[in-house]
Amino acid sequence: MSTAHPYAQPMLRDNALQGKTIVVTGGGTGLGRAMTTYFLQLGANVVISSRKLEVLEKTATELREQTGNANVLAVQCDVRKYDEVEALLEKTISTYGGVDVLLNNAAGNFISPTERLSHKAFDVIVDIVLKGSYNCTLAFGKRWIADKKPGTILNIVTTYASVGSAFVVPSAAAKAGVLAMTRSLAVEWAKYGIRSNAIAPGPFPTEGAWSRLFPEPLASQLDPAANVPLKRVGSHQELANLAAYMVSDFSAYMNGEVVTLDGGEWLNGAGEFNKLELLTSEMWDQIEKTMRR
Ligand code: HXC
Ligand code: NAP
What we know:
The protein has one domain (6-292): 3-Layer(aba) Sandwich (Rossmann fold), CATH 3.40.50. 46% of the residues lie in helices and 13% in strands. The protein has 11 helices and 7 strands. A 7-stranded parallel sheet has the order 3-2-1-4-5-6-7, sandwiched between helices. Helix 1 (30-41) links the parallel strand 1 and strand 2 (45-50). The protein binds hexanoyl-coenzyme A and NADP nicotinamide-adenine-dinucleotide phosphate. Residues 25-26, 28-32, 50-52, 55, 78-80, 105-108, 128, 132, 156, 158, 201, 203-204, 206, 208-209 line the site of NADP nicotinamide-adenine-dinucleotide phosphate (NAP). This is SDR family oxidoreductase. Pfam families: adh_short_C2 (PF13561). One of its GO terms (biological process) is fatty acid beta-oxidation. InterPro entries: NAD(P)-bd_dom_sf, SDR_fam.
């Protein structure tokens, strides 16, 4: 029995992903790296891809050492370019003999008032997030269908994909598109044995997200855990546990689902009277007295 904190403990049984080949876009850093680590520990072959090959190769070397699983391959691929996505697919199949899972995790984001954005700034986010996800989905899906092979797609979205969010409008619009694609293809491609699901994470500290969403002086004034009813941010292993389940055959009946993992954060922002949490017991006494009068 591990003595690690419960949030940091692996969940699935050993070898739960043995023999599966998984492609993780943006797998060299942050949450992509965390999910890749756990997939390797569970016996999968994992192809990690993004724009920066040096970052991917360093991660691959470190994860071989850390997990004892040598089956991790670094492949450079800008998801905005369809020919590079096709090359990623070919490299994966030629190396591991097939591919079972596509994890659309690559993203770009930054905070800004929308009127300050150039049209290129809007493009860059939508291109990475939405176009990148549909490029990969289309290439992998076409291959699975042509080869009559089942497949699993897992898309990493955000909680604001459903409700929108000020100051990250390109990301919100693009993630909403990815969520719509998830639900649409869950129905359309089920007949081919292809499942589509999504995870909507709340705040999980990573260098990539924190440097672009909570830069100074914001970081010292805004606590990302403050709006979370559980009063903490997520741990990477918690996300990896959910992702491993959703790409495994244990979740074979889950299709078209978006699983929120945010400690209740988005609902806290949504409920009309949730702010009453700030009231003290004495204030409630006073209010009750006034109301009953
Ligand atoms: C306004 C900006 C900007 C900023 C870039 N631009 N940063 N505009 N504010 N902070 C503009 C540039 O001026 C340019 O427009 C256009 O965007 C393209 O910028 P480039 O730097 O040339 O793009 P590129 O080198 O491709 O880099 C892409 C990037 C970068 C998205 C800008 O941040 C990146 O590589 N991000 C990848 C990782 C990442 O973002 N991770 C966080 C994911 S977190 P002009 O008109 O000047 O040419 C997430 C959800 C988290 O998604 C939710 C947390 C709760
Ligand atoms: P991250 O470390 O910055 O991850 C983003 C990854 O995307 C990087 O590895 C980056 O690698 C890759 N990438 C960017 N542009 C690309 C492109 N054009 N082609 C291929 N790869 C590209 O940030 P993260 O926090 O782990 O985010 C991972 C996912 O979780 C994202 O989908 C994000 O929206 C989602 N998410 C995160 C949080 C959070 O709190 N961290 C919350 C909600 C959702 P290169 O720079 O090498 O290309």
